[in-house]
Design goal:
Jelly Rolls; Immunoglobulin-like; disordered N terminus; mainly beta; about 700 residues
């Protein structure tokens, strides 16, 4: 349980610090005085170290001092991160910076190549809180080799000006690489005050807030030039760059979001601080990947019969969607940044300590992790996304209930179904499939594993959505992908085992059963039929008995069609029946069209026969002669009279098929030549003058 400091403890802590502060600048330290050893100890006046020893951790050495006879040496390890602090009272000072010299010494064996990483930060409240760290040099400067001294500088922020309670913190830890880390040497440190601010501002940190926002943190307040979007390159289109009220942070807003899993190298340059000093250009690698589901640790070889040269971790995409891995990282047992690749559903990815050796021995493609090893007695493997959210984790062990055969006897730990809880040791087994041999003291020994592939005992999911077929409109089908307990993705976006498919088209499904992925596709084509019969709402009737042909224009997408007509008083199976109506009035009818593929459609409509249309105000029929009627060529109309006439020819459905306005004088002939373009059937000839209408039936043979 954490214990909070009481107010009295904090006061005593601050009083103790005040009594040991550096109060006069410039201040120099050559680390020649003997160090006081211990934990969280004041090893020199005003200096405190978290672990000071005589030969390791934080200690003094005489092997390679820059000046004098001693220097300060720091040796970070997997379990030790060095922290040294210097207490400063800057009541009388401004524009303070520190200069120091650093070198490295080779540490460990010849193959050990892990660098040391050096960070500096400052506290303005006596060590209760600290600013964002600034990396001294970069991740490769302090290599695990014998290097000469170089001068470095760290500028305290303007907020430290005239502050009586400043703490400078120096932190050294292991970098990415193999084996032990470099030994870092420091000598000839100075803390200096300048009358003017002539220091170049630094961009200490850049981090992603969300897909459209990035924060850049500087080591001091920045001027208006920091809001110039041209000073930030390597990103999608930038909408704006705005300083926060503290002026030391700029928030970048993007017009288009960052692509998930893609690496961006953002370069920050040309910005000035509030004193007009130009910044030192900095570049930052940014990756946005908030996805937290789908990736599963599926196999671990933590103790092969030989050394650790081919130990590996296997990852599996247990989802039905492509999974970008860029930005994912592994911590605890090993240090690894997953490669910027996209893992398709059912695909595996392998990471190992030595990718060249692994590929040579197994023939399986693998990526190399940056540091660490898989502890033979058990360890934690944690995968996180760029938001720090855990994607997957396994805390394996060489003790039961974990399978103990994986502890140095040759096989790997394997979970054959990545959809079960891989945190439960009972869901893990050991591989029985030979992959390669490794050298041992007595010759060679066998390794059993399946890196990059599924267990041999794991079967592919079997899916049968049925045959392709034609379906009727407005019909639905239940599609079942089977394989209960699997992960599903349908072309519709649904993720259930079964769906209801409505409409025509192609449907597919992906099924991930935890070890492999299968798919199936089915196509539903249009087999529907549509009943169509276009008739006018009203048809002129010249007799009390009326004969009318219903023209059927139904269409089908499949097979042949049979028809059934129901006129209430009679029925018909003809395609386009001719029906006799005994009296004028409204009649309803129903047409049912059924094709040979089993689909049907029903049309219900009505038609009205009007006995008055064409009789009121009619022209005299006695003087009009139409001949020949019926005919297959032309009609002649005599005896119409004099004046301007409108001549219209209508089909029985009321459609206008011919129209002409004509001046006539006396008795004349009016040819209406079909030229074989009019279909056979019944037509109506209408002749109208200003106040009279003449209508008569015509038949085209």
């Amino acid at each position: 349980m954490k214990k909070s400091l009481s107010l009295l403890s904090i006061i005593l802590l601050l009083i103790g610090k005040l009594s040991a502060q550096i109060t006069v600048l410039p201040y120099s330290e050559g680390f020649e005085d003997s160090f006081q050893t211990g934990l969280n100890v004041q090893f020199l006046p005003s200096w405190t170290g978290n672990e000071v020893n005589t030969t390791n951790r934080i200690h003094q050495e005489a092997t390679f001092p820059r000046s004098g006879s001693l220097d300060m040496a720091i040796t970070p390890t997997s379990s030790f991160i060095a922290v040294a602090t210097l207490d400063l009272d800057l009541t009388a000072y401004k524009n303070v910076f520190t200069e120091f010299y650093c070198a490295t010494r080779k540490n460990g064996s010849t193959s050990d190549n892990r660098p040391a990483l050096f960070f500096a930060s400052v506290s303005l409240d006596g060590g209760l809180t600290y600013s964002t760290e600034t990396m001294i040099g970069d991740s490769t400067v302090f290599e695990n080799n014998n290097t000469n001294y170089n001068r470095y500088q760290y500028v305290l922020p303007p907020t430290a000006n005239f502050n009586p309670n400043v703490v400078l913190k120096l932190r050294v830890k292991r970098g990415v690489g193999a084996g032990t880390a470099a030994k870092l040497l420091m000598d000839d440190l100075m803390v200096i005050s300048s009358t003017i601010d002539s220091f170049a501002p630094l961009a200490n940190e850049a981090y992603i807030i969300d897909a459209n926002h990035i924060n850049v943190v500087f080591n001091e307040p920045m001027g208006l030039s920091a809001e110039n979007i041209a000073n930030y390159t390597g990103l999608p289109t930038i909408q704006s760059a705005s300083r926060t009220p503290s002026l030391d942070t700029v928030q970048i807003t993007l017009t288009n979001p960052l692509t998930i899993g893609q690496n961006y190298i953002m370069v920050v340059s040309n910005a000035q601080d509030t004193s007009g000093n130009d910044m030192v250009p900095e570049d930052f690698t940014l990756t946005y990947n908030p996805q937290s589901e789908g990736l599963v640790i599926s196999e671990i070889l933590y103790n092969n019969p030989s050394n650790d040269i081919i130990e590996f971790i296997e990852f599996y995409n247990a989802s039905c969607s492509a999974l970008p891995l860029g930005g994912y990282y592994v911590e605890e047992a090993i240090t690894a940044t997953l490669p910027n690749v996209t893992l398709q559903p059912g695909e595996y990815l392998v990471m190992t300590m030595d990718s060249v050796e692994f590929i040579n021995r197994t023939g399986v493609t693998a990526y190399q992790w940056q540091g660490g090893f898989l502890n033979n007695s058990g360890d934690s493997i944690i995968v996180k996304n760029t938001l720090g959210i855990i994607v997957d984790s396994v805390n394996y062990s060489n003790n039961a209930p974990w399978p103990t055969a994986a502890d140095g006897n040759g096989p790997s730990l394997v979970v054959c179904n990545a959809l079960v809880d891989n945190g439960d040791p009972l869901n893990w087994g050991v591989s029985t499939e030979f992959i390669c041999t490794v050298p041992v003291s007595t010759g060679s020994d066998s390794v059993f594993a399946t890196p990059g592939s599924k267990c041999s005992s794991a079967a592919n999911p079997v899916i049968n959505l049925g045959p392709d077929m034609g379906v009727c409109s407005n019909s639905s089908m239940v599609l079942d992908a089977g394989n209960p307990g699997s992960v599903y993705l349908w072309s519709t976006g649904e993720t259930t085992q079964s769906i209801i498919a409505s409409g025509f088209g192609t449907y597919w499904v992906l099924v991930n059963n935890g070890s492999s992925v299968s798919s199936d596709t089915v196509e539903f084509t249009d087999a529907s039929v549509t009943a169509i019969c276009n008739v006018p709402d009203t048809i002129p009737s010249f007799n009390s008995t009326f004969i009318y042909q219903f023209y059927n224009t139904s269409v089908t997408s499949c097979g042949t069609v049979q028809y059934f007509w129901d006129f209430t008083f009679t029925t018909s199976a003809d395609t386009s029946p001719i029906i006799t109506f005994q009296v004028p009035g409204m009649y309803s009818y129903t047409l049912i069209a059924t094709n040979s593929c089993g689909c049907s459609d029903t049309l219900t409509d009505s038609i009205y026969f009007d006995l008055t249309t064409g009789i009121e105000n009619a022209l005299s029929l006695s003087s009009v002669v139409i001949y020949p009627n019926p005919t297959s060529k032309e009609f002649k109309v005599d005896g119409i009279g004099f004046g301007s006439l409108e001549i219209v020819l209508l089909s029985v459905s009321g459609m206008e098929v011919y129209k002409e306005n004509k001046e006539v004088s006396g008795k004349f002939s009016l040819p209406i030549n079909s030229n074989a373009t009019l279909p056979k059937g019944l037509y109506f000839l209408q002749v109208r003058n200003q106040d009279k209408l003449f209508t008569k039936k015509l038949v085209v043979e």
